Amino acid sequence: MIEFINNLPKAELHLHIEGSFEPELMFKIAQRNNIKIPYKSIKEIEEAYKFSCLQDFLDIYYQGAGVLITEQDFYDLTYSYLQKCAAQNVKHTEIMFDPQTHTHRGITFETVIKGISKACKDAEENLNVSSLLIMSYLRHLSEEDAFKTLEQSLPFKHLITAVGLDSSEKGNPPSKFKNVFEASIKQGYIPVAHAGEEGDADYVWEALDLLKIKRIDHGNNSLQDANLIKEIIKRNLALTVCPLSNTALKVVDNLKDHPLKKMLELGLNITINSDDPAYFGGQVNQNYIETQKALNLSKSQIYLLAKNSFKYSFLSEEKKEIYL
Ligand code: ADE
Ligand code: ZN
């Protein structure tokens, strides 16, 4: 089974590039930029990566991202993740990045997007891994701030496919970002959003009806509402489920209790993803392997999950054909 999973061509649809920042690379870049980080060793970093909720994690995640300064830093971060994709038979990936995490520290939008997109271009040529970018607005900041980010992105519109919504979910409902999503759609960006990770089903409804999203990031709490499940199926939307993230952030107590199998049985369109692999103990293949084991998923269910990852990607129909 492990070999079957490792060899299966797959796409990753829910990945934060800042969450792929492995401790080794973080130390290297921190040293290069003369920035002190509050850890002496990889072991100390691993000790710090014990979270009791999303906010616990986010505090450490933003701190880690604080060592990224130059275009080369963003290039190295991204290329390192794409090398892991190649090693796992991930043929295509849709990478989220959080511009505000960096622009709020005085790093320009241009530095971030140029470093990330150059790594994507090189990986397509050298590693045969294709990718596209999802610019995510931070929901703990204001809608006005998201509008500024949208404005900054416009000179680089050709490099960005979609917009997302991430960071602290509770207390920051999708409705807060209705206008900026409307404006983003007008600019040609495809809308997605984190919803129903810690927030309730009504946040998922808002993301569907107000933000007009084309894919749901996480979506676990959709299961609270039978009408919502029906609606998600009717609209043929997929959920980008992240099992090891859910256990690390205590969204789910134990992988054996993960709702993924139930989601499949209900007829929801599910994909498996790593979210922030450097922080949650596993790349995408590890997410497949541990979930398969915990829920006793069959080979045909694993195959369906991998197939869904291409089917619900934002690749052109022509490119999807290669994999479906
Ligand atoms: N940013 C990075 N990972 C996230 C997650 N799992 N939920 C919300 N925001 C995030
Ligand atoms: Zn996420």
TrEMBL record:
It catalyses: adenine + H2O + H(+) = hypoxanthine + NH4(+). Its cofactor is Zn(2+). It is an enzyme of class 3 (hydrolase). The active site is at 197 (proton donor). GO terms for biological process: adenine catabolic process; hypoxanthine salvage; nucleotide metabolic process. One of its GO terms (cellular component) is cytosol. It holds the Pfam family A_deaminase. Residues 9-324 form the Adenosine deaminase domain. The record marks 218 as: Important for catalytic activity. Substrate binds at residue 276. GO terms for molecular function: adenine deaminase activity; zinc ion binding. Keywords: Hydrolase, Metal-binding, Nucleotide metabolism, Zinc. Zn(2+) binds at residues 14, 16, 194, 275. It comes from the Bacteria. Binds 1 zinc ion per subunit. Its EC number is 3.5.4.2. HAMAP family: Adenine_deaminase (MF_01962). Belongs to the metallo-dependent hydrolases superfamily. Adenosine and AMP deaminases family. Adenine deaminase type 2 subfamily. PANTHER family: ADENINE DEAMINASE. Catalyzes the hydrolytic deamination of adenine to hypoxanthine. Plays an important role in the purine salvage pathway and in nitrogen catabolism. This is Adenine deaminase. It comes from Lutibacter oricola.
